[in-house]
Write a structure and sequence with these properties.
Layout (H helix, E strand, L loop, with lengths): L8 E5 L4 H12 L3 E6 L2 H13 L3 E6 L5 H15 L6 E4 L14 H28 L4 E6 L12 H21 L4 E8 L5 H10 L4 H9 L10 H12 L10 E4 L9
Parallel strand pairs: 1-2, 1-4, 2-3, 4-5, 5-6, 6-7
The chain binds NADP nicotinamide-adenine-dinucleotide phosphate.
Length: 262
């Protein structure tokens, strides 16, 4: 067990799969008491089993981030589990994908993506800031943006808009939160091989997944996709005191995707 987050009380939304799961497991391995807040009960409980099997402390709380009451209740449960009533680290990670140019995106599609990816993050930020201020300040908020917030990628109108807004929200919030000792940063992953991307490959390239994967691999300077653990390592760093001077940043974790062409 590490000690980089020893005694911290953390929440990871969307912690039942992919990047959220890897981050929840790493947070706990670094000494945090972790609440996994996810819609997916089976996935959330598996994450908690992994945490406990490694000797860490965690719990699953059924949460739909589009519902403010759910998020508020999950954060209260997290603070209770921690024992001190404090909440130290909030990772607003839950998100969904959507493939479509603007004229392939219905108003319902747009609302669905925004409800999870943007309103869900806003709910997490609102509840985190309220709690962190009430406890006398201090805390870390991580918001899940994406490399797509800084580069054009076709047929991602709603998704890109949601992630761009999360990045802008993060920077604006950091200004307001700094006087309270609250750090707010965003993660900007490139293509990370998780169930999210596996599902996209299956849906969009049925029978041609390997070919599609090869062309996606070629976009990174590494020639490889990232792993959930690559992003979790960045999340641990930003959540820890090692990142005390990092505020309002969007940390690229993208194998050079946004750096330039190989
Ligand atoms: P993932 O494997 O699909 O995990 C996302 C988790 O969030 C799932 O457990 C999902 O549950 C949950 N979730 C969805 N809607 C929710 C809601 N309304 N309330 C609570 N939980 C909800 O995805 P991932 O690849 O780890 O992605 C995590 C985040 O990183 C997302 O915000 C994504 O946009 C972002 N991101 C991913 C990549 C990538 O390449 N993978 C790149 C950049 C950014 P269900 O399974 O039940 O839906």
């Amino acid at each position: 067990m590490g000690v980089r987050l020893a005694g911290r009380v953390a929440v990871v939304t969307g912690g039942g799969s992919g990047i959220g799961r890897a981050s929840a497991v790493r947070f706990a391995a670094e000494g945090a008491v972790v609440t996994v807040a996810d819609l997916d009960e089976a996935g959330g409980r598996q994450t908690v089993e992994q945490i406990q099997a490694a000797g860490g402390r965690g719990q699953y709380v059924s949460t739909d981030v589009t519902r403010l009451d759910d998020v508020r209740a999950a954060f209260a449960d997290a603070a209770r589990l921690g024992g001190s009533g404090r909440l130290d680290v909030v990772f607003n990670n839950a998100g969904i994908g959507f493939v479509g140019a603007v004229d392939e995106t219905s108003p319902e599609d747009w609302e669905r993506v925004m409800a999870v990816n943007l309103r869900g993050v806003y709910h997490g930020c609102l509840c985190a800031v309220e709690r962190m201020k009430a406890q006398g300040g201090g805390g870390v908020i991580l918001n899940m943006s994406s490399a797509i917030a800084t580069m054009g990628l076709g047929r991602r109108a709603a998704y890109a808009a949601s992630k761009g807004a999360v990045y802008a929200l993060t920077r604006s919030m950091q200004v307001d939160c700094a006087p309270f000792g609250i750090r707010v940063n965003a993660l900007m992953p490139g293509t990370i091989l998780t169930p999210f991307v596996e599902g996209y490959l299956k849906r969009s390239f049925a029978g041609r997944e390997e070919e599609a994967l090869a062309s996606i691999r070629a976009r990174q300077l590494t020639g490889e996709l990232g792993t959930a653990e690559d992003v979790a390592s960045a999340a641990v760093f930003l959540a820890s005191d090692e990142a005390r001077f990092i505020m309002g940043a969007g940390l690229a974790v993208d194998g050079g995707l946004t750096t330039g062409k190989p």
